[in-house]
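Researcher: Please translate sequence to structure tokens.
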Amino acid sequence: NSLASPAPKIRRAMIDDRYTDEIRNWLHLHATIARDEILHNVDGNAGNLVRLAPDEFASLDFGEIFGGQNWTPETLLKQGALYNKLLHVAYNGTPSRSDTERIVHVAEGHAAALSRCRRHLYRWCNLLADQHSANSVLEFLDRRVDTNWMKARFA
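Model: Translation complete:
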């Protein structure tokens, strides 16, 4: 199972049980895990959550999407399963079947979201990098928002 793959050690001592329980109760946890999977956010950890209120967080710091700051169109082609740090904080790497189903379910809406912002995303990627990189980013995201990709990821 790809979720149980070897991964770097997380210092769980920094996260007490109450905080972990609050993360598990967070309304947007499943969507955030799915988003990090789709964007291949290698730094989506609990330290990048701001606690707004009990069981309510805002996520920040997306400097490591697409596998890190040094991504290239070529590395995007090779990105596979992500060691999802937030998934490991919330579920010790093993979400329940119902949590897995919820992650896949909320991910289904990401394809529509990508479709709505596609033109703007392409324009910004093209301005910040080049046309080849912009096309590669969109191809990468198209693959990852595909429902079958997410289902296979959490199979």
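Researcher: Any highlights?
Model: DSSP finds seven helices and two strands in the chain.
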